[in-house]
Amino acid sequence: MEQKTEATEEIVQEQPAEETTETVEKAPDKKEKKSGDKEAKKLRAQVEKLEKQLEEEKAAAAAAEDKYLRLAAEYDNFRKRSQKEREGIYSDAAADSIKELLPVIDNLQRATEFTAPDKVAEGLSMILGSLPAVFEKMNITAFGKAGDTFDPNIHNAVMHVEDEEHGEGEIVEVFQQGYSIGERIVRYAMVKVAN
Q: Which residues pair with 160 in a beta bridge?
């Protein structure tokens, strides 16, 4: 019986060892499961955080694109408005100039109705007398008179003459008067200059 007892003891001893091994094996599984759950929760939290950041960045990008599109549209409108204003300024200036010149044209037309030479000459003289006032209203200045000193910035010397009566660089004769609007030269005076 001793042999049966020893064999039974061996079986009994083996069984608790197996249970202990199974218990030890199951325990790490629970720990792994708990740590896996914690990692999964952390990863879910990170994913949610990243998704939230992505949504915020998408919203910021949409706002920036909207701002860009509005700015581009505003610039395009400004460009079109500026172009219309430039065109309007030119046409307004041209209309104002023509309006000032119309009385002179009317007087020239009236002068053609006269056949007497002295009346025509008198009318033309009166018309020429009214032009400086018209030019003054338009800020146009005439220059280039005989006796003035030659200035290459505003005069165009088409002839030179040696004349002892006139000083060097003095304008002897004016073929065409020059005109300027403010600082801008509209036409250079065409002159004969003494050497």
A: 193
Cβ–Cβ < 8 Å for 186, 153: no
DSSP E strand boundaries for 4-131? none
Distance between CA 75 and CA 28 in Å, rounded? 69
Q: What are the Cα distances from residue 146, in Å, to 90, 143, 161, 191?
A: 35, 10, 14, 8
Tell me phi and psi for residue 146, to 5 degrees.
-60, 135
Tens of pLDDT, residues 148-181? 999 999 999 999 999 888 889 999 999 999 999 9
- The rounded distance, in Å, linking the Cα atoms of 194 and 163 is 6
CA neighbor of 192 nearest in space, from 156, 165, 167, 168: 156
User: Residue 185's CB: how many other CB atoms inside 10 A?
Assistant: 14
Which tokens sit at 130? Answer: 């009214």
Q: Is 50 exceeded by the pLDDT of residue 18?
A: no
Q: How far is CA 121 from the centre of its chain?
A: 55
- Domains parsed from the chain with CATH numbers: 38-138 (3.90.20.20), 141-195 (2.30.22.10)
The per-residue DSSP string of 124-178 comes to HHHHHHHHHHHHHHTTEEEE--TTSBP-TTTEEEEEEE--TTS-TTBEEEEEE-E
